[in-house]
């Protein structure tokens, strides 16, 4: 069993437990459920922002604890000030030590799009994302069928959410091109063994149709890498560990952005 298999198996149990505690109808009554979502595309294209989707992540299966001292609000506010185009917050509890409370806490201090970074296997999790303040949901092609990607993305769009599809190879990309998707992210991290290679992004950038925002995810730790990815056609870059492994992630991002501008 790969780490991804274990996560998905656990996720199905977790969703069943959540449904037994809070019904879909109850989620729809949450105050944040009816708020209009920020546009990911508009934020990425805003010249005053950097294209960076900055991530709040306490831990990961491959690294263990990354940062459990910086609070979600201080980190994401720092990212916003530093010029992030969007914020990603991990909500998986068992493998990444995140929670839905992290999402709603982040929402309180943000005026830019917020991504619920989660392993989505059920439309219920999309309703949760909306109820807790997300603007964007993530669908991972490696753990969904194309039919599920289409169905889940259609549901997300019906709630006004932005959809980021994550792929790892050309086969996943070609099987999951739907109009209900806003952005396609190429994860440079192999979710089966957690090795990282930017070749994933370089191989796929020209195969992603231009109607989608092109995002390179993971393994980005140098401003020169972003400059290179931009030249090749990427408009957005998801960065988490590089900032989170420091004592002050917001300040680390500010320094990174200064180098990017310089």
From TrEMBL:
**Pathway info:** Amino-acid biosynthesis; L-tryptophan biosynthesis; L-tryptophan from chorismate: step 4/5
Coiled coil spans:
none
* Any one biological process term the GO annotation gives: L-tryptophan biosynthetic process
What does the record give as the reaction this protein catalyses? 1-(2-carboxyphenylamino)-1-deoxy-D-ribulose 5-phosphate + H(+) = (1S,2R)-1-C-(indol-3-yl)glycerol 3-phosphate + CO2 + H2O
Q: Which InterPro entries match?
A: Aldolase_TIM, Indole-3-glycerol_P_synth, Indole-3-glycerol_P_synth_dom, Indole-3-GlycerolPSynthase_CS, RibuloseP-bd_barrel
Q: What does the record give under GO molecular function?
A: indole-3-glycerol-phosphate synthase activity; phosphoribosylanthranilate isomerase activity
Top EC class, one word? lyase
Q: Where is the Indole-3-glycerol phosphate synthase domain?
A: 4-249
EC number(s)? 4.1.1.48
What are the entry keywords? Amino-acid biosynthesis, Aromatic amino acid biosynthesis, Decarboxylase, Lyase, Tryptophan biosynthesis
UniProt keyword annotation of Lyase present: yes
Entry similarity comment: Belongs to the TrpC family.
Q: Which HAMAP family is this protein grouped with?
A: IGPS_B
State what protein this is by name.
Indole-3-glycerol phosphate synthase
Report the gene name. trpC
């Amino acid at each position: 069993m790969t780490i991804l298999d274990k996560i998905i198996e656990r996720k199905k149990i977790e969703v069943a437990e959540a449904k037994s505690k809070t019904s879909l109808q109850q989620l729809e009554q949450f105050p944040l459920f009816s708020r209009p979502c920020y546009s990911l595309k508009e934020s990425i294209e805003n010249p005053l922002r950097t294209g960076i989707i900055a991530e709040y992540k306490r831990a990961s299966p491959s690294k263990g604890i990354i940062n459990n001292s910086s609070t979600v609000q201080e980190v994401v506010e720092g990212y916003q000030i530093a010029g992030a185009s969007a914020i990603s917050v991990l909500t998986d509890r068992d493998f990444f030590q995140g929670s839905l409370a992290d999402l709603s806490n982040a929402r309180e201090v943000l005026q830019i799009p917020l991504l619920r970074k989660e392993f989505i296997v059920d439309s219920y999790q999309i309703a949760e994302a909306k109820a807790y303040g997300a603007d964007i949901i993530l669908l991972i092609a490696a753990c969904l069928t194309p039919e599920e990607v289409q169905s889940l993305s259609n549901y997300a769009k019906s709630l006004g959410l932005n959809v980021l599809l994550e792929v790892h190879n050309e086969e996943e990309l070609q099987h999951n091109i739907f109009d209900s998707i806003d952005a396609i992210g190429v994860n440079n991290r192999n979710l089966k063994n957690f090795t990282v290679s930017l070749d994933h992004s370089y191989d796929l950038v020209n195969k992603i149709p231009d109607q989608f925002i092109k995002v390179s995810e993971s393994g980005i730790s140098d401003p020169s890498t972003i400059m290179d990815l931009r030249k090749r056609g990427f408009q957005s870059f998801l960065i988490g560990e590089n900032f989170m492994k420091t004592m002050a992630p917001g300040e680390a991002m500010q320094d990174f952005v200064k180098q990017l501008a310089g």
